[in-house]
Amino acid sequence: MWRRLYFLLILVRIYFAFSPSYLHPDENFQGPEVIAGRVFSYPVHLTWEFTSENPIRSSFPLWLAYGSPMYLLRWLWEGFGYEEVAPSVVYWALRVLMLTLSIVLEDWAVQELVQSPRQRRVAVPLVASSYVTWTLQTHTFSNSLETLLVAWSLVLIGRIVEDKKHSGVFASSILGFVAVVGVFNRITFPAFLLVPALRLLPHFRRKPFSLVFLITFASITTFIAICVDTAFYTSGPFKFTSLMKHPIITPLNNVKYNSSTANLAQHGIHPFYQHVLVNLPQLLGPAFPLIFFPSWRATMRLLSAFSGVLLLSLFPHQEARFLIPAIPLFLSSIRLPKSYTRTWIASWVIFNVAIGVLMGVYHQGGIVPTQNYLARSNETLSHVLWWKTYSPPIWLLNGKNENLDTRDLMGMPGPKMLEELSKVAPCERKGLLERLAGSQKSVYLVAPRSAYFLKPYAQPNASTEVKLEEVWSYRQHLNLDDMDFGDDGVWPTLQRVVGGRGLVTYKATKTCR
């Protein structure tokens, strides 16, 4: 029975993996967009993490996770005689990659970590039925990669400790490699392993050869990672003299940056209890109370999850996705309540289906389809202004961003947004004449349909100075950052945001005298 249920949950995971929701800009800007610009020469936008004097993001794990499959895809594409790979193909190929890694590596790790067949029949379906697994784990987040690295580090630690007859040289060597990749991927990685790693001390005392191999492979991987980052961030051909004079050690830069409260304040300061009292319930739902009453003794994965959450709570900037590595560890350690079991299961299903559809389908769901539409459009564009959305991934524009100015106006006040739009919008009358001549470039505004401020400007025969003509829309889009309960009230806000769901692409013109 549980195997059929697990197969059904894999189908659910596949559905969400192929839904174009956009959970956070970092799933593009801190991963695929960076590497796609190098592999396919797409014009890309590099964020400050990669352009500052002391860059804090390592390219080493990005090359391993995304660069290798991109090169393979390019080789296959060219081998079949096609032209350059379209960005949309790369985008969905990476979704397939993350889906595959989730099903193979995450579920495999859970099966290894939960050794009791009876407990495994509960743990595996619970992890597979979590909306975190459906959505966040199938997107290209560094946190999603961290989840896999943490889980397999625990598997390797378990293999080393449990093998009393051998030194565990192979597992120790792989652990040294995985640990370094984890640190270069995210500096939060050690928080989940500090306590479980203590179990290795008695083994290393008995089998010091195992420790030698771990340190050796960790050192080699560290050296390679520093070389890759130094070459990535240094203009011109890579030389070892550059490595000696100015090595780029991104984890060190990251620690220095995040040690400053002033730097963290730019990204949001949260109370110390944010992770425990807000973020964990948001990720676990009805399972949250159960993590404090596990089904058996304090396992290594439970210690890893709790220590990771508590250590990350020491830092004032706390986002829910930082805790993704702890979710499969918690869910594989809980015991279903003996009383009201069916009620709990019903609440678990309702919670994950509701949040899964919200986050996996509708959350900023129109951004990627809109970029793909703009990439296919035959319209000659000069500017595309995005308002009240997440920052769009410009690498999906299929090279059009070389001549197309994409501006992210974020949550700019409406009147100010119209000023910016008016500066670049073509004159309506002049636009008609030049369009007939074939030389007029269009300006688009992309905004949620729930932005009712735009309604007067989108009416037919509007008498406003700026006029908007709807040219394309995507229905499955919700802008959860446009909730104005204080001014509009709860019900009117929900009516506007949910009832006005969708992302609209407008052609903008203005009346010129």
From TrEMBL:
E.C. number: 2.4.1.-
Tell me the route in metabolism or biology where this protein functions: Glycolipid biosynthesis; glycosylphosphatidylinositol-anchor biosynthesis
Signal sequence interval, chain numbering:
1-17
Mind listing the GO molecular function terms for this protein? alpha-1,2-mannosyltransferase activity
> What keywords does the record list, in alphabetical order?
Endoplasmic reticulum, Glycosyltransferase, GPI-anchor biosynthesis, Membrane, Signal, Transferase, Transmembrane, Transmembrane helix
Example of a GO cellular component annotation carried by this entry: endoplasmic reticulum membrane
Where are the bilayer-spanning segments? 168-189, 209-234, 344-362
| Highest taxon listed in the record's lineage | Eukaryota
Main localization is: endoplasmic reticulum
Q: Which GO terms describe its biological process?
A: GPI anchor biosynthetic process
Q: Does the keyword Transferase apply?
A: yes
- What are the subcellular locations of this protein? Endoplasmic reticulum membrane
For membrane topology, the record states: Multi-pass membrane protein
Q: Does the keyword Secreted apply?
A: no
Q: Which PANTHER family match?
A: GLYCOSYLTRANSFERASE, GPI MANNOSYLTRANSFERASE 4
Provide the family line: Belongs to the glycosyltransferase 22 family. PIGZ subfamily.
The name this protein carries in UniProt is: Mannosyltransferase
Taxon lineage: Eukaryota, Fungi, Dikarya, Ascomycota, Pezizomycotina
